[in-house]
Amino acid sequence: MAITPLPPNFNGAGKKVGIVLSRFNAPIGDNLLKGAYLALREQGVPDTSVLLVTVPGALETPLALQYLAQTGKFQALVALGAVIRGETYHFEIVANESAAGISSVALEFGVAVGNGILTTETDEQALMRAEQKGYEAVLAALEMANLSMAIAEYEK
């Protein structure tokens, strides 16, 4: 029996993409979005196929992703935001709960979600990583959307 490999595929042609951007830490969010838009353009996703919604912070992101997933209109979703460590335990709560919520949406709805929520020690670290993280989150979402389609089409 021959093994059939499914190589990574980042092609965004024909895909509708929903982006949820946290407004908290807005300068970092702007850079995350800059990287995300670059990846979308490079992968052939026209602006008319992208819906951007904003939410107050990372804890609200999973619910907005759920709203988008419930429509059934999107092949890929992207979460963008930044959680920066402060002097309290709040960082761990926000980072853990937002990540768990994002994963739950992907698993519950079977939709590809790229997690671009940065978790850093400082604003400077987040600013340095933001554009690349936004870019990578889009690529992850597109790759998983294409993987889902390829598996569905396997030996039809």
Labels describing this entry:
single chain, Rossmann fold, 4 strands, 4 helices, 51% helix, 19% strand, alpha/beta, 156 residues
Structure notes:
It is built from 4 helices and 4 strands. The protein has 156 residues and is α/β, with parallel strands linked by helices. It has a single domain, classed as Rossmann fold, CATH 3.40.50. Strand 1, helix 1 and strand 2 (50-55) form a beta-alpha-beta unit. The model has no long low-confidence stretch (mean pLDDT 96).
CATH topology: Rossmann fold
CATH level-two architecture: 3-Layer(aba) Sandwich
Please describe the biggest sheet, giving its number of strands, its sense, and whether it closes into a barrel. 4 strands, parallel
Strand content: 15-25%
In CATH terms, the superfamily is Lumazine/riboflavin synthase
The helix fraction, in percent, is 40-55%
Per DSSP E runs of 2 or more residues, the count of β-strands stands at: 4
Basic shape? globular
CATH class: Alpha Beta
Helix tally?
A: 4
From the N-terminal CA to the C-terminal CA, the straight-line distance is 17 Å
Mean pLDDT: 96
Low-confidence sequence ranges: none
Order of helices and strands: EHEHEHEH
The order of strands across the largest sheet is: 2-1-3-4
**How many domain units?**
1
Structural class: alpha/beta
* Radius of gyration over all CA atoms, rounded: 16 Å
